[in-house]
Fold Acyl-CoA hydrolase.
Amino acid sequence: MRFHTRKWVKPEDLNANGTLFGGKLLAWIDEEAALYSIIQLENSKVVTKYMSEINFMSSARQGDIVEIGIAVENFGKSSLTLKCEVRNKMTRETIIRVDNIIMVNLGEDGKSKPHGKTEIEFVKDRLAE
């Protein structure tokens, strides 16, 4: 799993208990999954179809730095299935794992469209061509 993004937990990210608000973290995960999918599928029209059960294992407090990791589980015909792990860089604990996030590639008409991808591509390899 590659950890591409780090977030600094700020006061506006906290819940009433003074810890990272789960909804904020899920929004960060959804955004990271979308960005990853857009780059992999080379299409800015990608949507979240499904996110599996989530299980908060630990938390983060103001000032902590969390990092978000994404890995591809499967390439479907018009979808991409990802898994995600978020960890607290300060405590070295896993905050959450999401086993399945399904992102769908869309065409201009807003309907699912086959993407033709079968394996992970890295931008550095695309630039070399």
